[in-house]
Design brief:
Blueprint (H helix, E strand, L loop, with lengths): L1 H11 L6 H4 L4 E2 L3 E3 L6 E3 L5 E9 L2 E8 L7 E4 L6 E2 L3 E5 L3 E5 L5 E4 L7 E6 L5 E5 L4 E4 L7 E2 L3 E3 L4 E7 L2 E11 L5 E4 L10 E4 L8 E4 L5 E4 L5 E4 L10 E7 L5 E7 L13 E2 L8 H4 L14 E4 L5 E4 L4 E3 L9 E3 L16 E7 L1 E2 L4 E5 L4 H9 L6 E5 L2 E5 L6 E3 L6 E7 L9 H21 L2 H20 L8 E2 L6 E2 L2 H7 L6 E5 L2 E7 L7 E7 L4 H14 L10 E7 L2 E7 L6 H5 L7 H21 L4 E2 L8 E3 L5 E3 L6 E2 L6 E2 L20 E2 L1 H16 L16 H10 L11 H4 L2 H14 L10 H9 L18
Parallel strand pairs: 26-35, 38-42
Antiparallel strand pairs: 1-11, 2-8, 3-4, 4-5, 5-6, 5-7, 8-9, 9-10, 11-12, 12-13, 14-23, 15-20, 16-17, 17-18, 18-19, 20-21, 21-22, 23-24, 24-25, 26-27, 28-29, 30-36, 31-35, 32-34, 33-34, 33-36, 37-38, 39-40, 40-41, 41-43, 42-43, 44-47, 45-46, 48-49
Helix pairs in contact: 10-11, 10-15, 11-14, 12-14
Length: 794
């Protein structure tokens, strides 16, 4: 029935007008555009589409087509995604080559490739198609026939046409996903740029011998037809609003094909969101399970796993003990952040490793051994003693051993097995201090120096000549990118206010704000992938000035995977800004107290991340640091949901021989240790107390203080946690959490650790190093004493 309806639509929808009838504002030979911050574009007659240069970062430009009348200027086609054009580059309409893009020195970067064809003019059409035509209006070249990742209404793809996803959300170079209407008539989606294996195909139309054309019609329908116009395979379903809406269908960078709409006259009363809205289920409906390559990484990269979001888009994450290989692209996989198990000796380091549980998770490939008729304890021991075993999957009495790299990973309700990931108990790789780094740098410099001294005079002379030639070319450019400036006192990179103003596009996208300033999203470098968070501090007076000095001196000397990295700062006149690494998943508060509850496994990882970061601040820094404001709002999550401690502006630095200090009350009510209110010297134990409250919130997935709680005993969560522990009913804390309820031993252990942390007497609270060991199971958790009831009165 759907095929019949779509066939009727195809007949009723008028065919595109002739090329000649659509011309408006034709561009003659010699017309050109220059890549700069001016309006470097050619518009369609209605002004809805534009062709020209889009700035993608400092001094880098993309030749593209975009929706001109919507706020985000969504790009639908690009020419030079793999090689961005420097500022001053030019695109010109020429008789020899057609459309030619050259850099400031005249070197060709891209060309439409027309030669000797009688080119007369070009036009940007209202359909979003950019065409090159002859004097007799014959179309010689058009963007619709050479799509990148997007197709538009009235666009038709012929046999042999390929659509490539881009590398990442803001990087328009070619990614690894693509779909193609093959010469055999079959429409297929591939997980690699080139088909290496039939398992690379993750969706197909099964229309071999009959498929002819992929059509996106004016009614918002995308479908595959036969040569006679019969609809063979609809790619979209349902009713799509078209009147008053822009439409686009795109192969997203994560491999799913989605149809979007956007209101042409969006405003607060339009009833539609200001951005693009999904109006059709993506293809495939579950990419996590659709991609199952014989050789390849799966939907996500090696050693990572795929989960499905509410929008049916994949989310790629790292398992315990692994970190992203590329922080700018979560789909590039993960690497171990610990030293692998040694295979030397008869019992290789089995006491140095543990197995972390991951429920409803599997890596179907990478199996090198399996055993049946076993129990889980046997499976655990078999993996621990096997130095080749990176993970084990246990399900229904079967134990599968997996080795690195793990591939095709996925987590979801469709999986029924349990994964046991092997990680090192004490992660020595995360405790590299600045002294270690300096030592490594000195060693590297000595090696480089030795090599240079041993080189011949001829080689050195050649290097000198090369350098002089390079400098001469650089001096010819009218605008050079500013060299990196390092402050000799702080050792940090310094930025000018203008650089950061440009990096944030005029402080356009706000990420959050606090008492001392506002944080904006920005991008550094020539590609729109190097995101940063720029904190603009308030005026240069009072506490704001002190916070600036504290953050630069404190954070600049820290280096740990669970601390947000300070990349540099600006101290120019009244302008003071801090540049941090960008954390794409926001705050723990939003993640923990949002509409959907994070998994118990993910909360465990976050707890361990925060504990390791605090342990580093307290004990492993050259100068010990007390954070003073540990709370969910100051814990940020990166692209792989690794938790990192942020906002050291309230930190109180201790000298190497200090253990306590005196200061005014700092931090946030509800997370403050009682000694803050008693005019007592504070120590790192105030952070331990705050961590205890945070741990309570992570266990129960709610705020510690909830005055609107239906049960009075549950208003202060920390008090209720002790009551449940004392009564032997800790499962009440997680009664609606099936995953946590099955892990009652760990829940009870975490509760006991939290009760130790919130002891009124700071001397009774354990150190963060000891807490980390207890969380990892390396140290047994003793029975906690009864805490005082001071919490209810604070």
């Amino acid at each position: 029935m759907a095929s019949v309806i779509l066939g009727i639509l195809l007949v009723l929808v008028p065919l595109p007008l002739s090329t000649k009838a659509q011309f408006g504002g034709n561009l003659t030979l010699g017309n050109s555009l220059t890549a700069n911050d001016q309006n470097s574009s050619w518009s369609s007659p209605s002004g809805e589409f534009a062709f020209g240069f889009r700035r993608m970062g400092a001094g880098a430009y993309l030749l593209a087509i975009w929706f001109e009348k919507i706020e985000d200027k969504t790009i639908v086609w690009s020419a030079n995604g793999n090689s961005l054009a420097p500022e001053g580059s030019k695109v010109q309409l020429t008789a020899d080559g057609g459309l030619v893009l050259t850099d400031p020195r005249g070197r060709e970067l891209w060309s439409s490739g027309l030669t000797g064809t009688g080119l007369a003019y070009a036009a940007m059409l209202d359909t979003g198609n950019f065409i090159l035509a002859s004097v007799s209006h014959v179309k010689l070249w058009d963007s619709f026939s050479r799509p990148t990742d997007t197709i538009l209404p009235m666009q038709r793809l012929d046999l042999g046409t390929k659509v490539n996803a881009r590398y990442s959300k803001m990087n328009y170079s070619a990614g690894r996903f693509h779909f193609m209407l093959g010469d055999d008539g079959n429409l297929a989606f591939y997980a690699t740029p080139v088909l290496y294996d039939p398992s690379d195909i993750y969706w197909r139309s099964n229309t071999v011998g009959s498929g002819f054309q992929l059509i996106f019609n004016q009614s918002g329908q995308v479908y595959l037809t036969a040569r006679n116009g019969t609809v063979l395979e609809p790619l979209t379903s349902g009713t799509v609003p078209t009147n008053g809406f822009y439409q686009r269908a795109i192969l997203e960078y994560d491999g799913v094909f989605v149809l979007y709409i956007h209101p042409k006259m969006a405003n607060s009363s339009s009833g539609w969101p200001m951005g693009w809205s999904t109006v059709s289920p993506p293809i495939p409906p579950n990419i996590c399970t659709s991609i199952n390559q014989n050789s390849g990484s799966g939907a996500c990269g090696f050693n990572s796993y795929c989960t499905l979001g509410d929008d049916l888009r994949p989310r790629c994450q790292c398992p315990p003990g692994y970190t992203p290989l590329d922080s700018t692209n979560e789909m590039n996989g993960c690497i171990q952040d610990f030293v692998p198990q040694s295979c030397n000796g008869s019992r290789p380091e089995t006491d140095q490793f543990v197995l972390r549980e991951m429920l409803q998770t599997d890596w179907p490939a990478s199996v090198y051994e399996h055993s049946t008729g076993q129990n889980e304890d046997w499976c655990r021991e078999a993996c621990l003693v096997d130095c080749f075993c990176a993970a084990a999957i246990f399900e229904d009495g079967v134990c599968w051993k997996k080795k690195n790299p793990l591939s095709n990973g996925r987590m979801g309700s469709w999986e029924t097995g349990k994964t046991l990931i092997k990680v090192r108990i004490h992660d020595t790789t995360s405790k590299c201090t600045k002294n270690d780094q300096k030592k490594n740098k000195n060693t590297t410099l000595m090696i480089i120096g030795s090599v240079l001294l041993s080189c011949s005079v001829f080689v050195n002379l050649l290097l000198l000549i090369t350098y002089l030639i390079y400098r001469s070319f650089r001096s010819r450019d009218s605008k050079l990118s500013r060299p990196v400036q390092i402050n000799q006192v702080t050792g940090m990179r310094t930025f000018t206010y203008q650089e950061l103003h440009e990096a944030t596009y005029g402080f356009k996208e706000e990420l959050g704000r606090g008492a001392f300033g506002t944080v904006y999203k920005g991008v550094l470098g020539s590609e729109d992938t190097n995101f940063v968070a720029v904190k603009v501090l308030a005026t240069k007076t009072g506490e704001s000035e002190k916070e600036f000095e504290r953050e630069v001196s404190a954070i600049g000397r820290t280096d740990h995977k669970n601390l947000v990295q300070l990349l540099g700062y600006c101290n120019e006149g009244q302008h003071r800004l801090l540049v941090y690494e960008f954390m794409s998943n926001g705050t723990l508060a939003d993640f923990l107290f949002g509409a959907s509850r994070p998994s118990w496994y993910r909360r465990i990882e976050i707890v361990c991340n925060v504990a390791q970061g605090l342990s580093y601040l307290h004990e492993d820094c050259t100068r010990h640091i007390i954070h003073c404001d540990i709370k969910p709002q100051n814990i940020l999550l990166d692209g792989s949901l690794t938790a990192k401690i942020s906002d050291l502006g309230l930190a109180k630095l201790l000298m190497a021989n200090q253990t306590r200090t005196t200061t005014g009350v700092r931090g946030t009510r509800g997370y403050l240790a009682p000694e803050w209110f008693r005019n007592m010297p504070i120590s790192s134990k105030v952070d331990v107390y705050s961590f205890g409250i945070l741990l309570v919130e992570l266990i129960c997935c709610r705020k510690n203080y909830e005055p609107k709680a239906e049960i009075e005993a549950q208003i202060v969560m920390a008090d209720w946690v002790y009551d449940c522990y004392h009564n032997g009913s800790v499962l009440q804390l997680v009664e609606s959490d099936e995953e946590a309820s099955r892990d009652v031993k760990r829940v009870k252990g975490f509760v006991m650790i939290a009760l130790w942390c919130i002891q009124e007497d700071p001397a009774l609270r354990p150190t963060m190093k000891k807490i980390t060991q207890m969380l990892e199971g390396a140290v047994e958790v003793p029975v906690p004493p009864v805490p005082s009831s001071f919490m209810s009165s604070i």
